[in-house]
Amino acid sequence: MTNSALEKFNVTALTENQVEQLTKIENYIQKQLQQATNSVVVIEGAAGTGKSVILTKLFEKLQRGTKEPDSAYYGLKNKFTVNHPELLKVYQELSETVTSLKKSDYMRPTSLINQAHKNKQRYDVIVVDEGHLLLSKPEPYIRFKQDNQLSELIKLARVVIVVFDFNQVMQSKMFWNRTLLETCLAPYPHQTFELTMQYRMQAPASVQTWISALAAGTILSLPKDMGHYDLKIFERAADMHATIKQRNEAVGLSRMLATTGFVKRSATEHNVYLDDFNLPWDEYDVQTTPWAERPASINEVGSIYTIQGFDLNYAGVILGPPFMYDEENDQIFIDTDKVTHREIYKKTPHITDEKAMEEMKQSVMFHVLNILLTRGTRGLYLTAADDKLRNRLGQL
């Protein structure tokens, strides 16, 4: 059971499969540290395959080894970066519980890149979580002036270890596909390691298949055997919230989540509203405690900006107005005009064709859905703002 956002990062033991993967990754790192050229390790895996756990254990070993004369990592200068403020909080919190780690080990990519350029600093190893969130275009507003953050990080370190999941790309300014990644990696020695085992959702394969299909817009019949996984469709968001509160009282870490699409009704209020349900949509908060761990967030609605990368026990997910039902094809489609968070659709130099841009707009919203649907380790509750889609899901 997950009782805190920190728990999954602070595991004492890895599974046999994870130990095997970590050993292979370390062997490659140690080999490349002996070479003169910068190199890259790519770790690929879907949501819930333990990417962050592998990275956490790897970085612990790296930092512990810097103080041990007989270690292959003795004397190395290393950094850990993630372009997600809520996850950064968790990693910094983790540093207070592990003696080999320091809060200053963890930075946002832009800060790391700019600081390294200013101080003419180079590193031995840079570990990058959620690499699919790295900027792939200049963003002067946050003082990132280069073409993409991955290329800049590779220039700064002898070895870069980066996690990628193309199904978690969720903004055009962080647009990544395999072609772009391969272009960035082409000048450097690199190796990809794939993680395939599902560790988050304690659900039978049939349930995982159903959720994966829905995250791609396909509506399947509900599995007959759900094991101990609690999968429910709700007619009313208010009833779903009441159930989430009950689960939170019983086991903790149970929260409401929603996609974009709920229009602001005033300059100061951005709420998710449906039937008699009406709660604040929490896009981002500067508090040091991660959103999911704050008691007050039981009466808020989380977004990809506060929940991506985290585990919940139970997730209540509201599909916002852009998610609509196509009766003719019995599937979900995205009305991109109803997406209220227009930031995700800014122009990108990597997509110039109008048709490709529309495809990107569709795929990004399905990526958002995939992220939200895969948060619950023990249960997933669903409802939708679109009446036809909610009714169709209810028929299941």
TrEMBL record:
Residues 39-386 form the Schlafen group 3-like DNA/RNA helicase domain. Gene3D superfamilies: P-loop containing nucleotide triphosphate hydrolases. Pfam families: SLFN-g3_helicase. InterPro entries: P-loop_NTPase, SLFN_3-like_DNA/RNA_helicase. Coiled coil: none annotated. It comes from the Bacteria. This is Schlafen group 3-like DNA/RNA helicase domain-containing protein. It comes from Weissella paramesenteroides ATCC 33313. The lineage of its organism: Bacteria, Bacillati, Bacillota, Bacilli, Lactobacillales.
